[in-house]
Write a structure and sequence with these properties.
Mean pLDDT of chain A: 81
Mean pLDDT of chain B: 86
Shape of chain B: globular
Number of helices of chain A: 5
Structural class of chain B: mainly alpha
Oligomer: heterodimer
Low-confidence stretches of chain B: 169-173
Number of strands of chain A: 12
Number of strands of chain B: 0
Radius of gyration of chain B: 16 Å
Order of helices and strands of chain A: HHHHEEEEEEEEEEEEH
Distance between the termini of chain B: 17 Å
Largest sheet of chain B: none
Radius of gyration of chain A: 23 Å
């Protein structure tokens, strides 16, 4: 027993290092796995309010550019309003409200912190549980998709950016509906890779890639990007596709979080299959 | 003593602010991710007790983790580097160094000694950090080249910072 105490005393630095290192690995294992728990709950109180101050200063200098992009979006939305259509028919139609049930709600949010050059990038938004945000909601910008909500605290949420090793998004080609999964290969924030597209699907550069109808996170048809380059290796069953993303991740500042009102219903139904 | 602790605390806060406000915003390429905050551990005096080094590494890593929402990642890397520093310095310092309360810096040990020391330490830190970030050994060579390039950039920034700010204060680093 005395020898054991002496042994521990002699190598106490090593034991201290070892215990702290194991603790760090346990933290990584527990929290870094996608959607495991909410580390942010413990830290966002201090760090996010700090990042808010930084981001407010940063936003001030970007006001002109943000205004421009919002104005463009407004113009586009305005042109889609019913009032900007010329009424061509003269038989009045009645819209039966029970035919249309709203499925998606959009919650506007501001980016508080962001990165694009790390292998695993995360985004923090200034909206949280109090504003109705929950984990696994989709996030889009005015140009295209941004990522998926990961952890939520009262006033903030962290978003798994599309530019992340753990992010995989179900996508399809707009022209023929061939689907694949979109991942980021870690090189350039402007490009991602579309995997699992079968080799018999004909492709052209500049073909539009949109979200598929398979996920409960994004509505169908949100633009993602366009094909920048594609190739098919001999003996390979799937295309190698490089996608140019519409969202400029290095300057994204205003985003929308998507709430799917029918998500629970769909998931409950699908869960009954597995039982 | 109180003054010394206060000066370390100030340096601790300053280097974290420098990292998250300035260096994290360098967005040149996905291969260049410098983490200069390790300079805090690199330049602690040799007279400091080993457990103090390990403890400070842990605190520094935890602070970085809080700001980058990556639980455990920076702790693991910085803690590993802090522990390795103890052994590296035990092997390379002389008795005069310890009696003279040596601080591992360019002004006291010269640019060549510091560069080798810095490269070994930063490389070990980045090796752990980048491989834990990707969480596996797929993309092995791409991650390894990211480690190399980022290590060189981090070292360059630390050396330039030392030359700029600590040159005149010969003797106390």
């Amino acid at each position: 027993m005395r020898n054991l105490i002496f042994f521990i005393y002699k190598y106490y630095v090593f034991f201290m290092f070892f215990i702290l290192e194991v603790a760090a690995f346990m933290l990584i294992y527990r929290f870094n796995n996608y959607q495991r728990a909410s580390f942010v709950n413990y830290t966002t109180g201090v760090t996010s309010s700090f990042y808010t101050v930084v981001s407010n200063t940063h936003d001030y200098f970007n006001l002109r550019r943000v205004n421009d992009s919002l104005q463009i979006e407004n113009a586009r939305l305005r042109s889609e309003l019913l009032t900007s259509y010329y009424k061509n028919n003269f038989t009045p139609t009645q819209v039966n409200d029970t035919l249309y049930k709203q499925q998606y709600e959009y919650i506007p949010a501001q980016v508080v912190s962001n990165s694009v050059t790390k292998r695993n990038n995360y985004i923090t938004l200034n909206r949280g549980r109090l504003h109705g945000i929950e984990p696994e909601m989709g996030v889009i910008s005015e140009n295209g998709i941004v990522g998926i909500v990961m952890n939520v605290s009262d006033h903030y949420c962290t978003v798994l950016s599309l530019l992340n090793n753990n992010c995989k998004i179900s996508a399809k080609l707009q022209k023929n509906g061939a689907f694949g999964s979109l991942v980021w290969d870690g090189d350039d924030s402007k490009f991602a890779a579309l995997r699992d597209v079968n080799k018999h699907v004909p492709l052209l550069t500049n073909d539009l890639i949109i979200t598929s109808n398979f996920s409960t996170i994004f509505p169908e048809g949100i633009p993602i990007g366009k094909i920048y380059a594609h190739s098919l290796d001999a003996g390979d069953n799937f295309h190698t596709i490089k996608v140019e993303l519409f969202t400029d991740f290095s300057s994204v500042s205003t985003v929308y979080v998507i709430r799917n009102l029918l998500k629970q219903e769909q998931q409950d139904l699908q869960a009954t299959i597995k039982q | 003593m109180i003054l010394e602790i206060f000066s370390y605390l100030l340096r601790f806060i300053a280097i974290i602010l420098l990292q998250i406000l300035v260096v994290n915003n360098i967005e040149l390429s996905s291969y260049i991710n410098p983490y200069i905050y390790v300079a805090f551990i690199l330049t602690l005096p040799v007279t400091m007790k080993p457990w103090q080094i390990v403890f400070l590494s842990f605190i520094l890593g935890a602070a970085m983790d809080a700001f980058s929402s990556t639980p455990g990642l920076h702790i693991a890397a910085t803690n590993f580097m802090g522990y390795m520093r103890i052994h590296y310095l035990r092997a390379t310092t002389t008795k005069e160094d310890i009696e003279g309360r040596m601080v591992p810096s360019i002004s006291q040990k010269g640019i060549v000694w510091f560069s080798v020391y810095g490269f070994v330490m930063v490389f070990m830190h980045h090796l752990v950090l980048f491989f834990l970030e990707i969480y596996g050994f797929h993309e092995f060579f791409r991650t390894l080249s990211r480690v190399f390039v980022s290590t060189l950039v981090t070292l360059l920034l630390i050396v330039v910072g030392q030359l700029l700010f600590f040159r005149s204060k010969k003797g106390n680093g």
